[in-house]
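#struct-pred

JT: dropping the chains for the assembly here, can someone run the whole complex?
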Amino acid sequence: MRIIYITLFYFSLLLSYASYATSVNDFCVADLQLPNTPSGYPCKSETNVTVDDFLFSDFVPRNTIDPFNVRLTTAFVTSLPGLNGLGISAARGDFGLNGTVPMHFHPDANELLIVVKGQLTAGFITPTKVDLKTVKPGDSLVIPKGLLHFGVNTDVGNAIASAFFSSSNPKMEILDYLLFGNDLSTSIIANPTLLDVSQIIKLKAQFRGSG
Amino acid sequence: MRIIYITLFYFSLLLSYASYATSVNDFCVADLQLPNTPSGYPCKSETNVTVDDFLFSDFVPRNTIDPFNVRLTTAFVTSLPGLNGLGISAARGDFGLNGTVPMHFHPDANELLIVVKGQLTAGFITPTKVDLKTVKPGDSLVIPKGLLHFGVNTDVGNAIASAFFSSSNPKMEILDYLLFGNDLSTSIIANPTLLDVSQIIKLKAQFRGSG
Amino acid sequence: MRIIYITLFYFSLLLSYASYATSVNDFCVADLQLPNTPSGYPCKSETNVTVDDFLFSDFVPRNTIDPFNVRLTTAFVTSLPGLNGLGISAARGDFGLNGTVPMHFHPDANELLIVVKGQLTAGFITPTKVDLKTVKPGDSLVIPKGLLHFGVNTDVGNAIASAFFSSSNPKMEILDYLLFGNDLSTSIIANPTLLDVSQIIKLKAQFRGSG
Amino acid sequence: MRIIYITLFYFSLLLSYASYATSVNDFCVADLQLPNTPSGYPCKSETNVTVDDFLFSDFVPRNTIDPFNVRLTTAFVTSLPGLNGLGISAARGDFGLNGTVPMHFHPDANELLIVVKGQLTAGFITPTKVDLKTVKPGDSLVIPKGLLHFGVNTDVGNAIASAFFSSSNPKMEILDYLLFGNDLSTSIIANPTLLDVSQIIKLKAQFRGSG
Amino acid sequence: MRIIYITLFYFSLLLSYASYATSVNDFCVADLQLPNTPSGYPCKSETNVTVDDFLFSDFVPRNTIDPFNVRLTTAFVTSLPGLNGLGISAARGDFGLNGTVPMHFHPDANELLIVVKGQLTAGFITPTKVDLKTVKPGDSLVIPKGLLHFGVNTDVGNAIASAFFSSSNPKMEILDYLLFGNDLSTSIIANPTLLDVSQIIKLKAQFRGSG
Amino acid sequence: MRIIYITLFYFSLLLSYASYATSVNDFCVADLQLPNTPSGYPCKSETNVTVDDFLFSDFVPRNTIDPFNVRLTTAFVTSLPGLNGLGISAARGDFGLNGTVPMHFHPDANELLIVVKGQLTAGFITPTKVDLKTVKPGDSLVIPKGLLHFGVNTDVGNAIASAFFSSSNPKMEILDYLLFGNDLSTSIIANPTLLDVSQIIKLKAQFRGSG
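RK: done, full complex below.
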C-alpha cells in the first residue's frame, strides 16, 4: 500500500506546495521602489527574494555626527530590506576620544544599548529622574521610547557600542540639529525655549542653520 | 582642532542628512490617489509633502443630516491627508433647535465629545445600562467604540460640539440610514427587528429606501 | 415644516452619502494583483466589490497532505479576499482511517479546532507539558500560536474537523516538509537535530528532498 | 567525550529548563477571578494550568434568544479561559423553524460564519449596499467588524451554524435589546430614531423595557 | 403561540442577559488604585462603574506652565478613568498675551490641535523642514508623534486651543524642564548639547534645576 | 514683571510636576511578583523604580545547551525588568568548537543576529527555500518570526554572537527538546513525524525523555 501512498504523495505534494506557496507569507522583504505605507513598504515578489535581502555585511564605521566625534552605521529597513514589517533594527556607534552621541530621542522606538568595547557614560532623562550609568562591555542599558538620552565615551581610548531598536526604521531626533540646523528663525527659537539670542546665533553658526 | 572639526562637520552633515532623510519616516501623508491598505493609504513622496497636508482650514458647518437638523463637518484622512496612519481625527456638529445626531455607532473608533456652545443631552446605551448626561461647555464625554449613542440639543438656542475619534477614518453607522435608506426589503427588515411593516414603510418613505 | 425638512433631506442625503462613501472604510477586500504589504493586500476599489468577495462556497476536501491520509481545504485571504486585514480565517480537515495532520506549527496564528465528525486525538507540545486530548463532536481545543501540534484520527471511520485561525493568511510549518522536503543537505540537518544520517536519508526519499 | 557531554547535559538541562520556564510565556490562561485589563485577564500561574483550560466540551444548544427561536452557545474567554489574549473565539447557533439571529453587530470582532446544517439567508448591511446570500453547508460568509447583520433559517427544518470571531470576548449588540429592553424612555428613543411612539411602546412590552 | 414565546422569553432573557453580562467587555474603566500595565489600568468592577466615569466636567484653565504664561488642563485617564484602554485624550490650553506652549514633544501620541479663540503660530520641526502656520478658529493642525513643536499666542488678546491625542495618557516632554529643571549636572548637559555653560547656569536658575 | 513670573513659576511648577508625575507613564518596569498579563507584567510603583531596573550587567556565558556545546545568556524581561512592554530583548551565544544552536524557532519574535567573533554558518528554512550564509563579524542576519533556523560555529576557534528579538520575552522552541525531552510517547511521536521508532528511542535517551 505504501507504494500507492508514495505515488499520490508526489502528485499531491506539488499541489500542496503550490497551495502553500500562495497562502504563506513568511516574510515581506521591502520593495523600496514602491511608496511606503503606515505598516511598512510593499513586499517584493517572492520570486525575487534572495538570502542577501536578509544579510547586512557592512557594519563598519560610517556617518560622522560632527562635531561630536562619533560615527554611526545603521542597519535599518532602507539598507536591510528583510527587516520590513519586522519591528527591529540595529545601529553601531564608534566613539573617538570624548566622542558623544548628542542629546536625542527616538519617538518611535525603544532601544537596547550594548557596549562592545571601552566605556560609556549614558542615561536617559525624565523631568524628575536623571539616571546616568557607566556602561561597560557585558552591560546593556534599556532606553524607553521617547526619552531624551545621550552617551559619552568616558574611556581613555575609543569605544564601540551596538544599539537595537523596536522599529524597522527608527527616527533619531537630535536636539541641536532640530533647533540650530534648519531655517527656523532665531526669535522663533528663543520664545518657546528661553535660550538667549546670542546662544542661538552661536549654535546656528556651528550647525549650519539659517533664519 | 576645532577648525578641522567644523570642516569635517560641514561635509559629514551632508552625508548624515542624506542618510537621515532616507531612514526617517516622520509621517506618512496619504496619497489618496493610490489604493488604500488595511493600515491606511500609501505615503506621498516626502518631496511633495507641504505643511498644508497637515492643516484643515474648513471647520465650518457642512453636511446636513436630515431630517435631524444637524450639520456635520469631518476632518478625516480623506480631507486632511496628514492624519494618515495616525489613528486620530475630528468632527464638528452644529445643532439647530432640537437638532439631533441620530442613533448611531462607530464600530472602529472611540469618541471624546466636547461641548463648545449650548447644551446637549447625550449618552450611550448598553443592554443593562443607559447613561444619559446633560453635557455643557467645559464638559466632555467618553463614548467607547461600538456603543449605540446619540446627542440632542436641549438648549434654547443652537449648540456646537466637537468630537474626536481614535481612528483616522472612523465609520458612522446611522441606524435609520442602514435600516430604511437602502434597498433592503420590508419583509427582510421586519423579521430580525420585529418592527411593524407599517412602521418600516413609513420610515422607508422618509429615508428614501426602496425594496 | 416637515415638508421642507424632507426636501432638504433628499438633497443633503445625496451629499452626505457622497461624503460618507469617501470617509467610510467598512472593509478592505484584497486586490490580489497588487503587491502585499505588512498589513495585508491593498484594497480593491469599492465599486468593484461584490458580495461574492465575502463568500467561500467550496469547503470540500481538497489538497492531500501525503503520506498522512488527510485532505485540507483552506479559506484564507488568497481564496476569500474579503478576509483581507480582518485577522481571521478557516480550514477544513478530512481524515481517512488513521489520517494524521503531521507535526506542525503556525507561527503567526492561534487556532481553535472544532471536531465536526468522528474523533481526533490532538494536543500541543511544550518543553515541560504534553497535553493530549480525545476531541469529539461538540468539543473544541485551543492551540496557542507557535506551539508544535498534530491531530490523529482515532475513530473507526473518517473524521472531519474545522480549524479557525487568528490570521487572514496563517502559515503552516510542517516539520517533515521543512527538514526532508527541500535541498538542505543531510549533514546540515544532522548537526543541529542530532538525527541519524540514515534516518534523514530515508525521510528525504519519502518527502522528495535533495541535498 | 560523549559521556562528559551527557553528564553536563543532565545538569545543564535542569538549568536551562528552569531558565526557559521563567522566560517562556507560551500562553496566558485567564485567571477569571482577577480584574480584567485592556489586553485581557491576568494569567493563571503556569503550575495551575491544565489541558482542560484549553478544551471546551459543551458546544450544545444553550441560551435562547427569544422571541427569535434561536439558541446560542458561546466559547468565549469566560467559558474557555485558554482563549485569553489570543484574539479568537467561537459560537454555535441552533435555528428552529424560521429561527432568526436578530439584527445585531459586533463592534470589536470580525466574523466568519459557517453553515453546518440547513440553509440560512444572511448578510450585512451598509448605507449603500445590502448583500444577502443563501448560505449552505460548505459555504462560509465573512462579516466585517461593526456591520449590521442577521441570519434567518430559510430551510424547511432546523439549521445549525458556527461563527468564529477575531476577539476572545466579542460583544454582540442586538438592536431590539438596546432600544427596547432597558429603561431608556420612549421619548428619548423616538427622537434620534424617528420610530413612532406606538411602535416603541409595543416593542418595549415585548422586550421587557421600562421607561 | 405568541403567549408561550413571551413566557419563555422572559425566562430566557434573564439567562441571556446574565450570559451577556459576563461575556461583554464594553469598556474598561480604570481602577486607578491597582498597578498600571503596559496596556493600561485594570478595569473597575462593572457594578461600580457609573456614567460619571465617562464624564469630565472641569475643562477650565488650570496648571500654569511658567514662565510661559499658558495654563493647561488635561483630560487624561488619570482624571477621566473611562478613557482607559481607548487610546484617546484631550487637553485645553489657555494662552495669555504672548503666552507660549514651550518647545516639547509627545513621544507616544499624535496630536490634533484646534484653535477655539484667538490665533496661534504653531508648527513642528524636522531636521529638514520647519512648518509654521498661523492657526485660527476653525483651523486644525496635525502634529505627528515625536516631532518637536510649540505654539505661541500671536493674537492681541488671550487665545484658547484644544488638543486631542492618540493615547489615553500622553507624555509631554518639555525641553526646558528636561534640560534645566532637574539635577543633571551642568557639564553633563554641555557635552551632548554644546550649550554654553553660562547659558545652562542661567536657565537652571530659572527652571529650578540643581547639579 | 519677571520676578512675579518666577514666584508663580515656583509655585505652579510644583503643581505641574505633580500633575505630570501622575499623568506620565514613561515606562512600565515589570513587577515580577504580580501575575503576568497578555500585554506584559504590571508596573512597579514609580517610586520603587531605579536605574538598575534598566541595566543588565551580566552578559557572560551562562546556560549550556547540551549536547550542542553552546552557552546562552538572555536579557529578557525576567532578568531585565525595564524591558517590560517594550517589545525588545537580547541574547548572547558563546559557541565552542563545532558548537551549534540547535534547530529551533521563535514563534513570537523576529531576530537580528550579529556575529561578534569567529564565524557562523546560519540560515532559516522554508518549504521551498533554504538560505544558508557564512556570517562573520560585522555581518548581521535577519530571521523572521516562526522560521526554523540554527547556527553552527564553522570557525577554527570559539565564536560569539549577539541576537536581538522583537519581544520582551521571546520563546525558544528547540525541536529536540520538544520531541525527545518530555513524556510524549514514542508511538505518538512516530505517527505525525514518520521518524523511526528506533531513532526516537535513541534520542529520548539522549534528551532525557520518558514515555
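JT: nice. Residues 2-23 of chain C form the longest helix (22 residues). The two ends of chain C are 84 Å apart (CA to CA).
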